[in-house]
Amino acid sequence: MLIAAAVCPHPPLLLPQVAQGASGELDGLRAACGRAVAGLAASGPDTVAVVGCGGADRVHASDASGSLDAYGVPVRAGEGPAELGLALTVGRWLCERSGLRPDRYVEVLPTSPPRACTERGAALAAAGDRVALLVMGDGSARRGERAPGTADRRAAGFDAAVAEALDAADTAALAGIDPVLAAELMSGGRAPWQVLAGAAAGAGLGGGLLYHEAPYGVGYFAALWL
User: Fold this and answer.
1) What are the boundaries of each domain within the chain?
2) 2-225 classified as CATH 3.40.830.10
3) How far is CA 209 from CA 12, 32, 191, 194, in A?
4) Scanning 43, 60, 144, 207, which has its CA 20 to 30 A from the CA of 3?
5) What is the mean pLDDT of residues 39-66?
6) pTM score over 0.90
């Protein structure tokens, strides 16, 4: 049964070693993510999973590691061979900062259909009596001139709707995100959020949005459901 869930984004700049001189710009986001992950740890879970997009639908063991070598910075999360993608690597880093030890890292294809995502979430929730999820995902990457993608006037409204759903722990709203629109807006969070929707359906969790900004033209969210 799902007893807690945290939602965080996964920009490499979240790690101060990567951001370097610009690290202060994301201090508020780091603090919000820290609060969210600390809330997971305090909930007393017996099973913890980190969920994020990657190149396949698969599960990595608790000792799986990742690196940010591809971003020109020799930063590692874990000690073994790097097998985790960006989202799960940042998720592992967040857990290490808070002393949380995930049992598994769940990789989800960004193109996974909504129903497959919600079914996968339901299976995760059934994996223990007290399950907690750390769900990694970014909003639209097309918000304004600083965005990685060309600015799209639909992006702000898309992110606002996601923020509202996360604040209200609205699983139906998350499950109903249009995968085509999410892909057009370059959102990396749609599939993981729909895994969360499946895991939390019927669990009676209450939501709380801790952060929602787009400092680099990408929507970032931090939330905690208990």
Assistant:
1) 2-225
2) yes
3) 21, 9, 19, 17
4) 60
5) 96
6) yes
Query: Radius of gyration over alpha carbons of the chain, in Å?
Result: 16
Structural tokens at position 81: 């061979």
Average pLDDT over residues 185-199: 98
- Give the tokens for residue 2: 């799902």
